[in-house]
Amino acid sequence: MSTVDRRNAVDRKRSDKLKALRDAGQTRNAASVAKFFRKTKAYTHLTLDQRKQVAAEVATLVGSWPDAVLFGEVADKRVVAGVEEQAYEQVLTRYEAFLARQNATGIVAYDANDTVVERFTALMERFQIVGGAWRRFNHITAHPFFVASHTSDMIQIADVISYGLRRYYENGETDLINAMFNRFDRLGLRLVGLRHARGHTACVCLICSEPR
Known about the structure:
- The protein has helices at 3-23, 27-40, 48-64, 83-102, 117-130, 153-171, 175-180, and strands at residues 72-75, 109-111, 145-147, 186-187, 190-191, 194-197.
- By secondary structure, it is mostly helical.
């Protein structure tokens, strides 16, 4: 199909899907699906292979940026309690440590999500007043900024980075993570910008195999 025909065909399929859900009385499910459709509407003219190519090009671009420093947390929800809050603090702690080494200050921006705004803002306030489990937060300034992803290229790039990590751990796909793995923060040979939280389970993944 042409890009126009493909978009029109997807729109028809999506309309049929939502109608079927509503006719079946699945109003809440229909609202959730409609929200997902709105978020992905801008990409329906692309084939699956084209979408994969876009993600691969972004990952390669990130990996080529000499001044980019990445931070991340991969957590196994089956063994990590309070996974969202713990991952949030872990990433902030690594970022704070990096800023301290650079004697610099920084801010934190997030994809706008109404379900986490109040909780993450309160957590940041607590970290800045009393510190976290591992260190005080003296170099991250102000409160978190929440930005709609469709208005920010950098938020979208962060989504691709997260997507690459997820595809590796859930599907064993290495292309995306390999393209940008060298940009995660390091101290000499030690990988300090990325952690795989897995409880006491043994692991030989890319992260766990690195010197720490």
